[in-house]
Amino acid sequence: MADTGNTTRLPYPFLRGEFFAALEQSGATSAETGWQPQHLADGDTFVPRYAKSHSRGEYVFDYSWADAYQRAGLPYYPKWLTAIPFTPCGGPRWLGDERRALALIGEALEEATELQLSSWHILFPQPAQLALFEGDDWLLRRGVQYHWHNRSYAEFGDFTAQMNSRKRKMVNRERRMVADSGLEISVLFGEQIDAALWQQFHTLYQLTYLKRSGGRGYLNEAFFAQLGASMADQLALACARDGSGRLIAASLFFYDDSTLYGRYWGCMEEYDFLHFELCYYRGIELAIARGLDRFDAGAQGEHKIVRGFEPVETHSLHWLGEPNFRQAVADFLRREGDMIDDHLAAAADMLPYKQPD
Prior knowledge:
eleven-stranded mixed beta sheet, 13 strands, Aminopeptidase, 37% helix, alpha+beta, two-stranded antiparallel ribbon
C-alpha cells in the first residue's frame, strides 16, 4: 500500500469544524437525539458541550450512577457532556487558547451549579490535560483501551516478526484465509470515495447496529456524505468486494499526523476473519505506510491483545453537583481503579511479542 504523499499538516480530525458541522447539519446531534449542542466559544477558542437526555453513545458508562441518582428522587438528566459524539478516541477537548478554554469551563461550572445540574463529564481528554483539572471539583475515572504502536516498521512483516511464533502464525493464517476467500480488498482515500460508495457504506454501518441491538445507528447517510465532501483529506475506507464487484464489507478510518483512528465498520455477509483484516490488519498497514505512531482501533475488544494491540489507560473527568453523591462515586472510582490496575497487568502478560533475551 503506497503512502499518499500528503505533506500538509493534518489536525486532530474530531475537533475540526467540518466534523461538528456534519454532525449537526445531518441531525445526528440535536435535542431530538438527546445530544443538544451547547458549545462554549470565545473567538477562536472552542469547547464542545452537549446537554444529554440519556447516556447512550458515550463509551464511558454511567448508567448505574444515573439509576442511583434517580432512585434518590433526583433528576440525573439533562447532564452536560464534553466529548466527541459517538467517538471514544482520546485527544484534545478544546481548540484555541488553553487559558481561555479553562476560563470558559470555569464560568460554565458556575452556571451548572446555579442550574443544579447533576453532573458534567469530560470524556477521553489528553493525559497532559488532566493536571489542569486537579482539585476538588473533578473526579478522575480510569479505563482501558488497546492501541497498536508503530516501532519504525517498514512493512507488516516487520511487525509480525516481533511476535512469538504461535501468534505470528495465527495472524498469517487469518490473513491467508481472507486472501483465499476470493474477496478483493482495497483501501481508498477520501477523494476516491464517491457518493454511491458513501451510500453503500452507510447501509453497512446501519447493519452493524441492527445485528447487535436491533436498532439504528445515530449517523445517517447525510452525515457520511457531508463528511466525505468536507474531510476527504483525513479519511480512508478499507473495502471488500466479491467476484461480481459487490461491496461486502468496509471499515472507515480517520487519520492525522500521528495517529490512525478506526471508527465504523459493517458487512453484508460473514467471512472468517474479515473483520480483523479490514478493521485491524489493513489499519496497521495504513499506519505503517503513512509513518503514523499509533493506531487507535476503538473501544473494548480484548481479542485485540493477541493481535498486537497493547493496553493503554484512558481517562475521563466528572463533576458531580450533589456532595453526597460525589462522595459515593469517588469511593466507587477508587475500587474500580484497583480493578483497572489488575486488568492492565493481566493484559500486558497476554501480549504476543517475543520476550527479550
